[in-house]
Amino acid sequence: MEAVVKNTFGSKVNEVAGVNKQDARITLTFFTVAFIAFFLGCVLGLLQGLNRAGLLELPAWLNYYQVLSGHGVLLVLVFSTTFMLGYFLAAFSHTLGGLLPKVRKMAWVGFALMVVGVVFVATTIIMGDASVMYTFYPPMAASPWFYVGLVFLVLGIWAVLFGGFINVADWRKKHKGQHLPLLAYFATGAFVLFFFGSIGVTIEVLMIIPWAFGWTETINVMLSRTLFWSFGHTLVNIWYLTAVSSWYVAVPKLIGGKLLSDSLARLVVIILVVLNITGGFHHQIIDPGITEGIKFMHVFMSLSIAFPSLMTAFAMFAVFERTGRKKGAKGLLGWIKKLPWGDVRFLAPMIAMIGFIPAGAGGIAQTNNQLNQVVHNSMWVVGHFHLTLGVTVVLSFCGIAYWLIPHLTKRVLTPKINKLGVIQTIVWSLGMLFMSGAMHWVGLLGSPRRTSYTTYGDNATALGWDPYLLFLAVGGTLLIIGAVLMVYIVFHLMFKAPKGETEFPIAEAEEDASETPKWTERWTLWIALMIAIVAMAYVIPIVDMIVNAPPGSPPFRTW
Amino acid sequence: MKQAIYGLVLYIFLMLPPVVTLAESVMAIHMHMQMPLFVVAGFLMAPFFQKRFPNFFAKWNSNGVPGIILFMIIVLYWLLPRTMDEALTIPAVEIFKFISLPFLAGIPLRDSWKKLGSLGKNIIYVSLSVLFGVMAWLYIASPTQLCNNYLIVEQKTLGWGFVFLALAIMIYFIQTLFIDKSEYE
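The joint structure predicted for all components is written out below.
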């Protein structure tokens, strides 16, 4: 793969300003890994869907939970991380005038570390020694090498993140008094969030390793879970922040509009960065050992994360309406017709945004204690994150790939591929509609998540789930078609599409836009505020969990 | 002047009886959220007083040192376990808390901070982090209850809160030694 990429670029002697070929190679390498992981993850997903519907009995050597762990790790950890890092490195390269040689080196070192980590993680899962799901918290214990792989993965990510910080610091030194370009601002926010969000899970993994090797006998389960979710929740919001960056920066340009408000976009970044980490507690609403007062506080903290999303919804639809009206739309909703629905670069993120309306609403419902009791650990939750991640994030990422890959490879998105992309988007959305819809519904009827197919001894309730689970299989099948199409498009755009120039779409501010306030650049302040809020949220319950800890748990292998 | 209004709103909010009850029901929230927020309220209200009484600040706090000493005295006073207990049991002490933290700590802090040189600021960073480190040791290591109103486990929680506070100030301080802000802004 690498050799092909090299040749393609090597043959291009004339370098047109804009794309730095060394930087482009980094992003394309990250994307290659991302979409291979995406394809494998989707195949595993299909196997699960068919199994859950009772249509497919997995062979004895392929355990359902092994498939589930592989699906989660490949899509939630590998695909999203590599895509996000590759995309934001391209963003830094484009908006900050190229990556520094030092930063490029860090990105490659980071990539190598991540590959080593993924090899460890994937091998242990394939060997059947790490069927602990992508959440991997105790008391289930995988092979210790699984966790060692995770350490490499985190170190690799940190190398890339710090590369990003160095590049931003250097740019700011050379451009005193200027605002960081909006896309780079998004990237900085996501990187800051990624670094601070990963501290908790790093501590958790460092606690687990001696336990998994057998050097320590027991582990504090509640503490590990809490540290995991401080990261787990932040992680999904990092993908979301990545998706949102393309909505604010690229989408207005693609539809021929302008940025609604630079300050608003930056404020959204700040709020998401400051408030996010403490949201993790809403994953533990059912956990014992956390007092009600703390849970109440965390419901409030989690709901506050919904606020910037509402700001985003407002901003995006305002841009659509303004652009539509400029193009001569009439009436209350006439602007909807003026949007370029046939352009996949718009269609994919647009469906992503529309998908986020029910996805976000479902999330708000789950955050509430009483409503959560109904759906906790049911298929509803799986349906929820297949909407947020499977629709909102994946389609936004695809939307980015349609213009970023041709931009980097100096090729063009042909009308034919655009049409294929539209078909892909529709197939994928329909698949998710079936699958996620069925999951939500069957979850409300009580079907548990993370469970292989069973009729519970032909229990009437369990049999009642079966018709809905069939829809899940139908959706899964459509999704694999969508995945194959997407992977084909990605590699076509990388190697086969006709040569040409593709623009990196960056929306401009309106002429009468007010000036962005200086305080948005005060990163020290925002980080300090984030740490203060994390301390407020975590010090009391964590000390309680440590001081009043039960005896602790030995490792369990449940499969 | 907007800030002063925000400060006043925060000040009144913090003194609402249900807010007071909630904030004082947990030791760590009492010391690490309620008290600092009172200081923040004073900090935000400071511009109003600075504009209203410029001569007073010029006369009594020309180089920032008296103000910062007053701030440190008030902070030190409220770090004592006994004063927390008294705030809960004696209404007059509670009222003194509501007045002293914003007006005798928050306002002088804001007025003094800009007037202090880097040496003065560094002294404050170091002494605060050392002080909080000592408080952390006291609250974590003490085998007995230090406040009649709070359990030992809450005391330990508070101690760990102090550890993080001390660390945060230390990291910020070290960061100021290496990073020159004027290079970036």
